[in-house]
Backbone:
């Protein structure tokens, strides 16, 4: 996939262990194999995105297969639509979903996440793909680069996604449904406030082809309960009493509920 400079927008070319554009903006390839293309002006904090602890918790949870049905649905849907070109995963995390998908389809993969810890973790394990630290709001790849964009539980920026997607490409978006992880929520919150949630949004510049529900139950024990909690947005919202209840929970029976939306660009 052709990379572009996050500072000036010109094409980046690889020279040994770095990428440079014609304006001599240079970006080193880290020892683990990823490239940091997150410009300083694109940061909203010193260390944006997931922390190392959150990334490692997610990897520990996902690699036990709790969320395997999501990965399986992605692959089934990609085969159904005949995906055969390059994948761009935006908000790739530690690479669990996209690395499996690209390997099964035998296609090139570029993964991007705003968390340097996430792409460092992905690059250390999965050596074939290109891993980038960057923001989905300013994707450092050229126009019409991806045959498939995937975005799981992450930020969607329709205009920018359409720019980097091939005209005949597809966008797979996975969003949590309103009843996602109600078991966890019932432990950490004194009261669950039900807010309307649009899990099948209409996106400007795209046509939604279908929405596929993904719903399955699982049981987590011990440290995996904390790992699950750490990979959710609830980690930023929990109160002292909820955290105490969670610490004393030995077994969690819960249901994951999400939607895979399939879009094509207009």
Residues:
């Amino acid at each position: 996939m052709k990379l572009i400079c996050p500072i000036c927008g010109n094409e980046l070319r690889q020279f040994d262990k770095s990428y440079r554009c014609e304006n001599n903006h240079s970006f080193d390839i880290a020892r683990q194999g990823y490239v940091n293309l997150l410009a300083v002006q694109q940061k909203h904090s010193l260390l944006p995105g997931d922390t190392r602890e959150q990334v490692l918790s997610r990897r520990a949870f996902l690699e036990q297969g709790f969320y395997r049905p999501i990965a399986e649905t992605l692959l089934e849907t990609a085969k159904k639509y005949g995906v055969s070109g390059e994948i761009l995963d935006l908000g790739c995390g530690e690479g669990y979903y996209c690395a499996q998908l690209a390997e099964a389809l035998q296609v090139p993969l570029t993964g991007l996440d705003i968390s340097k810890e996430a792409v460092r973790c992905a690059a250390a394990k999965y050596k074939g793909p290109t891993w980038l630290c960057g923001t989905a709001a300013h994707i450092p790849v050229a126009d019409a680069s991806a045959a498939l964009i995937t975005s799981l539980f992450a930020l969607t920026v329709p205009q920018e996604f359409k720019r980097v997607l091939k005209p005949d490409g597809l966008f797979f978006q996975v969003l949590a449904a309103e009843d996602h992880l109600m078991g966890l929520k019932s432990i950490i919150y004194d009261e669950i406030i039900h807010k309307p949630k649009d899990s099948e949004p209409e996106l400007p510049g795209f046509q939604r082809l279908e929405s596929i529900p993904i719903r399955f139950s699982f049981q987590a024990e011990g440290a995996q309960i904390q790992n699950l909690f750490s990979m959710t947005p609830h980690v930023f919202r929990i109160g002292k009493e909820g955290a105490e209840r969670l610490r004393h929970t030995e077994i969690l029976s819960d249901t994951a509920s999400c939607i895979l939306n399939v879009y094509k660009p207009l």
Notes: The longest helix spans residues 68-80. The first strand starts at residue 13 and ends at 15. The mean pLDDT is 93.
